[in-house]
Structure formats: structure tokens, C-alpha cells
Specification:
This protein is an alpha+beta fold and about 350 residues long. It has helices spanning about 1-10, 105-125, 135-155, 175-180, 185-190, 195-215, 260-265, 265-275, 290-300, 315-320, 345-355, and strands spanning about 15-20, 30-35, 40-50, 55-60, 65-70, 75-85, 85-95, 100-105, 235, 250-255, 280-285, 305-310, 325-330, 335-340. The protein contains eleven helices and 14 strands. The protein is elongated, with a radius of gyration of 25 Å. A hairpin with a 6-residue loop joins strand 7 and strand 8 (about 100-105). A six-stranded mixed β-sheet has the order 9-12-11-10-13-14. The termini are far apart.
């Protein structure tokens, strides 16, 4: 059966085609990359022969994917674009946002209108790129003050076009979710769905973190402070009180089911948990996750210590968590002894020296 599937694969019908001519290029190799988000993230790489600047590329796509194009001879010049099923793209110009042009089927006609909207702003940004930082940032801010409402107006006026969905991440960051909400259900749940789902998750997290920062403000925790009660619920929905763990050293392990390095660190953390279990307790604090994925990950990896979940991001802000995994060691009296970012041997050396 496997041999049959493999033998048929090359004959699967492609539903996307791109042709084009790149200005100022002879014979070269066009590198194309795009990201498949579902059912699991993977990056597809294709290398296409370019003869006298002309190229042709086709693929079987299940939905729209964001990606990029660049020449092997000039990897610094990168063009970000989209690859959309049941469409035919015709490219002309250079692999540069300012000089790239699109034609072809419906999506790419729409996409050309979107790039025409963006092009004047890209020209302005390019003109100040080499200015001193103080001047460049000031001018960029002024350009953005005109760009953001222009893009939002376009989204409001063209909510039923798939290419409009490519603009939602280019509005003011706190308006991204609003922009996504303005798209028609057909666009929101159509070919661009996975891309929009990812943007929605990402900017929902951004807004959650902003709200958490506003709540915490100056109430962050430093080494030597008494650990506060966090009010976080365990897998059974009960609030875990850190004061109930007094008399033992406690490790707060900030992690997430999506965090590869967090998962890779479990075996060694389990080893130390067994080694010092009479004097050590670990509390896993799940972050930026759904309750379902959190519970499934705990079960899958058979993690034996206590678990709670941060739903609002306030715990991360209090402890100044800048990345994952992030471990905080607390004394039996409830004071913060040290904190470690990443999966590092320094943490385990410190744990051995302390216990």
C-alpha cells in the first residue's frame, strides 16, 4: 500500500501555478519557501531553475500559505508573498516589495491592488532606512501614523477579498484583532483561515500580555522577595496555595505544551525531582496554552509534579518571564533565591549546591 501511495504521489494534480520574469537576472536558481501550519507546522523548500530571468513553479496546496522568494545568487533580497490554491500567479519586476508586480487570476489581481497600496509607504521607509536611529524612528512613526488608517480603511472597504487578509497584521498592533473581525465569514473561514487563526492567536497573546503588564505595573518580583500567592488553578480546577508548600524548596517551572525546549528538559527535571523529592516540590506553570493542550501534554509526558495554568499572563509579568522554560527557585521560607532562563546546566548546578 505504501509503495502504491508513493508511486502515485508525483501524479497528484497541482492546483497552484506561478510563472514570471525577474528583471536584471540571467540564469539562476529561485528559492521558494512557504509555511504549512496545519496539522503541524512544516516549512516547504523548493528550488526552481531560472533561465534568462524566466521561471515556472507549481504545487499542490490545501490552503493559502505565506512564504518568501529569493535568488540563490542574492539571498539578501527577499520577497514575502502568498501561495494560494486554485490560483495562477504571474510575477514581474524584481524580488523587492517596491518593484514586485502581480497579475494572473483573481487573488493575484487583488494582491496587486494591495501591494500598490503598500508601495508608496515602502518607498518612504526605504528613503529613511540609513538615517541615524533618532531621525529614522521619528520619521517611521510619522509614516505609520498615515499608513495604519489607510490600511484599515482598505480592509473595511474590501472585506470580501482574500488578499485583504494579508493586510491585517500591518495595522496598529492593538487593532489587528479588530481588523480580522471586519473580514467576511467567507474570507475569515476560507483559504486564509490557518494564517488568520495564527495571527489571531498571536495578537490575542500580545494583548493579554499588555493587559497583564498594565495590571502588574511596578509589582514585579526580584530575587530576595517573598513569593506572592498567584491564585492559579490546578488540573482539577482548585487554586494551589504556595504557602501550603512551606518547609520545602520549590521550583516554579514556567513552560508550555508548544515549547520544544521545555519538553526536552522534562527527563532531567524528573531526575532531580526524584533525587530531592523529600525536600523539593516543583510547580509547573503552563503559559500561552489552551486548557486542553495543557492537560494532554501533562498526561502524554507523564509529568509527576504539581501543575497550574496561567490564563491571564499576570504570573509571567510578576516574575519577569522573558522566555521559556523559565525556572524560579524558592526557599522553604518562601523567599526567591534565583531564576534561570532556558534549559541550562547552571540551574541544576545551583540546585545541587543549594540542596
Amino acid at each position: 500500500m505504501a509503495l502504491t501511495v508513493l508511486s502515485l504521489a508525483p501524479f497528484a494534480k497541482d492546483n497552484f501555478k506561478m510563472t514570471g520574469k525577474i528583471d536584471g537576472v540571467g540564469n539562476d536558481t529561485l528559492c521558494i519557501e512557504y509555511v504549512i501550519l496545519q496539522p503541524q507546522k512544516q516549512i516547504v523548500n523548493r528550488k526552481i531553475v531560472v533561465k534568462s530571468g524566466e521561471f515556472s513553479f507549481s504545487a499542490k496546496l490545501s490552503e493559502a500559505y505565506s512564504g518568501l522568494m529569493f535568488l540563490k545568487s542574492n539571498p539578501e533580497e527577499i520577497l514575502n508573498t502568498y501561495f494560494v490554491p486554485d490560483e495562477e500567479a504571474v510575477f514581474s519586476g524584481r524580488l523587492d516589495l517596491i518593484e514586485a508586480h502581480w497579475s494572473g487570476s483573481t487573488f493575484y489581481q487583488q494582491y496587486e491592488r494591495v501591494t500598490n497600496l503598500q508601495r508608496p509607504f515602502d518607498v518612504e521607509f526605504a528613503a529613511v532606512r540609513n538615517e541615524p536611529d533618532s531621525i529614522r524612528l521619528l520619521k517611521n512613526r510619522e509614516i505609520n501614523s498615515r499608513l495604519f488608517p489607510t490600511y484599515m480603511k482598505y480592509i473595511e472597504e474590501h472585506p470580501n477579498e482574500d488578499a485583504t487578509a494579508t493586510l491585517v497584521i500591518h495595522v496598529e498592533y492593538d487593532q489587528v484583532l479588530t481588523a480580522i473581525g471586519k473580514l467576511t465569514p467567507e474570507v475569515r473561514n476560507g483559504r486564509m483561515k490557518s494564517e488568520l487563526d495564527q495571527n489571531e492567536r498571536m495578537f490575542s497573546l500580545v494583548m493579554k500580555r499588555k493587559a497583564a503588564r498594565d495590571v502588574v505595573k511596578n509589582d514585579t518580583i526580584i530575587i530576595g522577595d517573598q513569593v506572592p500567592e498567584l491564585g492559579l488553578k490546578d488540573l482539577n480546577g482548585n487554586v494551589l496555595e504556595l504557602k501550603s508548600l512551606r518547609g520545602k524548596y520549590v521550583v516554579l517551572d514556567f513552560w508550555g505544551s508548544w515549547c520544544t525546549w521545555c519538553i526536552k528538559g522534562f527527563p532531567k527535571l524528573k531526575e532531580y525531582y526524584a533525587k530531592y523529592k523529600d525536600r523539593l516540590e516543583i510547580v509547573g506553570i503552563d503559559c500561552n496554552d489552551t486548557a486542553e493542550k495543557w492537560a494532554a501534554a501533562v498526561k502524554k509526558h507523564k509529568v509527576p509534579w504539581l501543575h497550574v495554568r496561567s490564563e491571564d499572563g499576570i504570573a509571567e509579568q510578576k516574575f519577569r518571564v522573558q522566555g521559556y522554560p523559565y525556572k524560579v527557585l524558592i526557599s522553604p521560607e518562601g523567599t526567591i533565591l534565583n531564576a534561570y532562563l532556558g534549559e541550562t546546566d547552571d540551574f541544576y548546578h545551583y540546585l545541587d549546591a543549594t540542596l
